[in-house]
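Before relying on records like the one below, remember that each one covers exactly one chain. Contacts with other chains, cofactors or solvent are not represented anywhere in the record.
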Amino acid sequence: MSWWLRHIGWWPPLFGTGIKVTRLDKDLRAIDVEMPLRPWNRNYMGVQFGGSLFALTDPFYMIMLATNLSSDGGPEVVVWDKAASIRYKKPGLGRVRAEFRLSEERLAEIRRALEVEGRTDARFVVEVKDDEGGVVAEVERVVYCATKTAHAERKKMRGGGG
């Protein structure tokens, strides 16, 4: 694991909102994060700011997939966050947490899609929970994964754009 990943909690977008990484498995298959309610991440109503709840889930699945797909000896891959949406369930009145898990079965599914199609949009749902285990928000993350060859072909078809 890179030095940067071991110190991701100091990355300004996370550090600035008070997001703390509490678990970071060496193989990047499990990451846990939490965020206390602080004056700088409260909204007008005094509860967790929606943007901070969204940020709590932001880079993790993309990083997990980029690391695991490129470390298995398979084809070189391009991995990007593609889309995300959040559905608020109840106010975040205190500390909130989120867990990210990447099973071998899910990785195998994504690898198969890359072998067959050359690309896939991997979807994950993350539950942001409070200290009592209640769901504060559900966040769907969509991560684009493609072999470098398939990505280059699609880029050429689009006229060279990103």
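DSSP finds six helices and six strands in the chain.
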